[in-house]
Amino acid sequence: MDESASVAEDIKTKIENYKTAPFDSRFPNQNQTRNCWQNYLDFHHCEKAMAAKGGDISTCEWYQRVYKSLCPISCVSAWDDRRAEGTFPGKI
Q1: Would you say 8 and 43 are in contact if contact means Cβ atoms under 8 Å apart?
Q2: Quick one: pLDDT at residue 2?
Q3: How far from the centroid of its chain's Cα atoms is residue 8's Cα?
Q4: Buried b (16+ CB within 10 A) or exposed e, 8-25
Q5: Are 55 and 7 within 8 A, CB to CB?
Q6: Smallest Cα–Cα separation from 66: which of 32, 31, 92, 91?
Q7: Which of 14, 27, 28, 42 would bridge 35 by S-S if both were Cys, CB 3.0 to 4.6 A apart?
Q8: What is the pLDDT of residues 10-33, one digit of tens each?
Q9: pLDDT confidence of 58, banded at 50, 70, 90?
Q10: Is pLDDT at 3 greater than 70 in this prediction?
């Protein structure tokens, strides 16, 4: 099995065992707003990159699960709307 297949299997195993967002040392404080934002951006970066390469977008699912467990639904809805309108403030 090549290394990329091993990584993909690793990610799929983590997704299957996912319960809630794990500790991320980049965001050690109780306020997880930046963690939510970063995982939202990471998901959309990953999705865009995988689509451009013709890769498996399911490998990006980890970021989506993390941001969905951390972010308020109202924020995600507003960000999705802004992305659709072309006024989203983040770089994707």
Answers
A1: no
A2: 55
A3: 15
A4: beebeeeeeeeeebeeee
A5: no
A6: 32
A7: 27
A8: 766 766 666 677 777 877 777 888
A9: confident
A10: no
